[in-house]
Write a structure and sequence with these properties.
Number of strands: 7
Structural class: alpha/beta
CATH architecture: 3-Layer(aba) Sandwich
Largest sheet: 7 strands, parallel
Order of helices and strands: EHEHEHEHEHEHHE
CATH topology: Rossmann fold
Number of domains: 1
Mean pLDDT: 96
Helix content: 40-55%
Radius of gyration: 17 Å
Distance between the termini: 30 Å
Strand content: 15-25%
Low-confidence stretches: none
Length: 254
């Protein structure tokens, strides 16, 4: 593996588990200094320990992406720790589902909007604010979902609406800020090897049997496969990718 990100700093939100952790590990493995951000200190420390065990460089910073002051402080701390901000991955998000639109609890709707949409907006604002001051600009990748702009299923309208908003916000921000030297793109994972893709009461084996029938690929995506797409978009190999939204879902939305 080449160290595509040696000398670079990558900030990853929601880095305490799942896709966020995989992305943080992947950047560190390719030479980046990584800031693992999220709300739970214990899980972030676990991510940092995994990176350091492999000889990488990382730091944990707690932040709530729904609070603009937290996000600004997160970006400031990233620069303070490692001297700049070259890549940002806005991965923090939540899932709420199980009810049709007419029965969607207002609290769930507001939580989805606050974290999945407003959280991404606040992160973009703070990250762009720093990156456009740098001669080298930067790259930002937002984590959307195949549920949203690409695919709809019953019972998860709130999640679908917020992730579709992330896809649209990504494209709009990309057009607004490419002139600042900042490339903004998205990835839209489908069912992945995380707890979010498990149905209530479902085991890993149950999910494997279900997705073998339901997905064209016959399995969920690994978190490493999603991370590989994120790193591609952040790398010089994707220099002409602006406002793209890569779907990684085993053919579910094809």
């Amino acid at each position: 593996m080449t160290a595509r990100f040696t000398g670079k700093t990558a900030l990853v939100t929601g880095a305490g588990s799942g896709i966020g952790r995989a992305v943080a590990l992947a950047f560190a493995a390719e030479g980046a200094s990584v800031v693992a951000a999220g709300r739970t200190e214990v899980s972030l420390d676990e991510t940092v320990a995994l990176i350091e065990k492999e000889g990488g460089t990382a730091a944990a910073v707690t932040a709530d992406v729904t609070r603009s002051e937290d996000v600004r402080a997160l970006v400031h701390r990233t620069v303070e720790l490692f001297g700049g901000l070259d890549v940002a991955v806005n991965n923090a998000g939540v899932f709420r589902g199980g009810a049709p639109v007419a029965d969607l609890p207002e609290e769930d709707w507001r939580t989805l909007l606050d974290i999945n949409v407003t959280g991404v907006l606040l992160c973009l604002q703070a990250e762009v604010g720093r990156m456009r001051e740098q001669p080298t600009g930067g790259a930002i990748i937002n984590v959307a979902s195949n549920l949203g702009a690409h695919r709809r299923v019953p019972g998860v309208a709130g999640y679908i609406a917020t992730k579709a908003a992330v896809s649209a916000l990504t494209r709009a921000a990309a057009l607004d800020h490419i002139a600042d030297g900042i490339r903004i793109n998205a990835v839209s994972p489908g069912p992945s090897d995380t707890t979010m893709s498990l149905r209530p009461g479902e085991t890993d084996a149950d999910r494997a049997a279900r997705t073998q029938r339901a997905l064209p690929l016959g399995r969920v995506s690994s978190t490493a496969e999603v991370a590989a797409a994120v790193l591609y978009l952040a790398s010089p190999d994707a220099a002409s990718m602006v406002g793209s939204d890569l779907v990684i879902d085993g053919g579910a939305a094809a």
